[in-house]
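Quick question, first post here. What does this chain look like in 3D?
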Amino acid sequence: MADDRNQAPREGALLVDDDESRERKAKRSRDDDEALADEAANVLEDLLDIMDIDADVHIREDGDRIVLDVRGPEAGRAIGKKGQTLDALQFLLNRIVNRDADEQRHIIVDSGDYRERHDKSLANLAEREAKRAIQSGRTITLQPMSARDRRVIHLSLAKFEGVTTESSGEGMRRRIQIIPTGAPRRSRR
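> Answer (accepted):
Ran it through. Tokens below.
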């Protein structure tokens, strides 16, 4: 009986990529990422022009994400109050650029490392309030904040001994409660 395993691939057969094929796919993927990053930067520049903000956009790769830095004399206007303008630009940009993409890439809009500084500030606030909650034995309720900011606080206190965190409220009034372990769940600010 003849061995027919060496014949042409049949429907349903497992095809294994060779090294050359993998290299071509990786190069194509990098090219696609660069094209997506360029498109995102161009769209962001257009949005900034419409908003009459004098700033430039610089692309920075950060692992799986594409980070677009807004720089220039009016870059602060792109941040907005508590980063709300950055968040809005980022939301719009992700919706516009990833609308047809098979593999979506998350795009971050930043200005002068605002997001990193803001996250550090939130982590410091979380630790300070957690210590206060433990010391007083009472639940501390923080001011309402965005989902992104609440996530930063939850993550920064996830391994903090002696407290748990919980979100309460609805919509824009959603807040974090820092609850000392063993304490009754009462709100205090």
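The mean pLDDT is 82.
Strands lie at 56-62, 65-71, 107-110, 140-141, 163-168, 175-180.
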